[in-house]
């Protein structure tokens, strides 16, 4: 988990959905996540995780996306 801040998208099991509570990180990393349509209140469904955990494939607003494990760690979920 990210520095005791709570559950991140990395912690969500395959086949489960989560709602984004907050984005952490700065600059280009945060901008990249937001450019994919992942913002506060967005529902994210985890479709698949590669055997070594990178990448994580998710569905957001009807689009299938791939996130790096480090990016998923910057997305706090409920």
TrEMBL record:
Pfam families: FeoA (PF04023). GO terms for molecular function: transition metal ion binding. Residues 7-78 form the Ferrous iron transporter FeoA-like domain. InterPro entries: Fe-transptr_FeoA-like, FeoA, FeoA_core_dom, Transcriptional_repressor_C. PANTHER family: FE(2+) TRANSPORT PROTEIN A (PTHR42954). This is Ferrous iron transport protein A. It comes from Gordonibacter pamelaeae.
């Amino acid at each position: 988990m990210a520095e005791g801040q709570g559950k991140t998208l990395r912690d969500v099991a395959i086949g489960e959905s989560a709602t984004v509570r907050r984005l952490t990180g700065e600059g280009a990393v945060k901008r990249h996540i937001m450019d994919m349509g992942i913002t506060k209140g967005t529902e994210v469904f985890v479709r698949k995780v590669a055997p070594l955990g990178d990448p994580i494939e998710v569905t957001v607003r009807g689009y299938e996306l791939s996130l790096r494990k480090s990016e998923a760690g910057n997305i706090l979920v409920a």
